[in-house]
Structure formats: structure tokens, C-alpha cells
From TrEMBL:
Species name: Duganella fentianensis
Any one GO MF annotation of this record: hydrolase activity
Residue ranges constituting the CinA C-terminal domain according to the UniProt record: 11-162
Name of the featured protein: Nicotinamide-nucleotide amidohydrolase family protein
Entries under InterPro entries matching the protein: CinA-like_C, CinA_C
Keywords noted in UniProt: Hydrolase
Origin organism lineage: Bacteria, Pseudomonadati, Pseudomonadota, Betaproteobacteria, Burkholderiales
Gene3D superfamilies, per database record: CinA-like (3.90.950.20)
Amino acid sequence: MHPNNCELILDLATQVGQALQARGLLLATAESCTGGGVAQAITEIAGSTAWFDCGFITYSNASKTEMLDVSAALIAQLGSVSEEVAAAMATGALGNSNAHVALSTTGIAGPTGAVPGKPVGTICFGWARGDQIHTERLVFTGDRQSVRTQTVIHALQGLLRFIA
């Protein structure tokens, strides 16, 4: 990872921690394509136990269903890389944790896995708090590591906007 990206991620994770702590909120993450990268960034920050509850790494469709209560029918209908599944992952993380707010990532980091309408770099995000849910779908460019890094950065930036 580029050193500037490391610094940016740590800075964002610090800001996330300050924002969550100021609001008395606990965070849970539900990650697929990032493989725990968001949770790792968050737990780099000393004292994160005060605002981070847990992280789910649900790489397979079966784990999304079993751990996060994402409907298998939803995955079958829309694919795991969809805003609807991202929303269900974030909601499932809330329902299966002590958290007040959750974020999710699901996507195609590459170099393989592209399907019609979903090129490599397609990432869906979800942020949930109570019954408030926000999703986004973006397409990043670059190699696998670059896509995953951009995803972690955007997930943290999106969380800051979501809880602001």
C-alpha cells in the first residue's frame, strides 16, 4: 500500500473513532471484498474498544446468510455485489452485534470475477443506523490491492458523512 494511503486510512480511522465516541456510538463492520481491512484500520487506533464492537468477514454467500441473515433468495436474485445485499449486510451486522451503526462492503476486487454489468472494481457499500440505511455503488480502477484500499478509504469517508 502506498505510504500516503496508509496515513490517510489512519487519519480517517482516527476521525471515525472521534466521531463515534463523541456520539456514544458503537460500530460493527460487515466486510466481504475488503477481508477485514476496515476493521483492521479501525483497531489500529488505540482506545478503539470504546467505539468498535465487532467485525464480520463474510466472504462467501453462505456466510452472509448464516452470520448476517442476508436472504439467500436476495443474493440469488441480485448477486452478492448489489446495493440491496450491502444494505442487508449492514442491517445484519446491527442485528447480530451490540453496535448502533454498521458499515458493509461487497464487491469485485479482481483480477477475475467480473460479470455483465459488474466489471472488476465494482463495489457496493452500506451504512446503517437504526432504520436509516444508505447505500452506494462505485467502480474503482487499478489492481486488486488498489481497489481494496480505495474501498476501505471510501467506507470510512462514507461512515463519517453518514453519522455527521
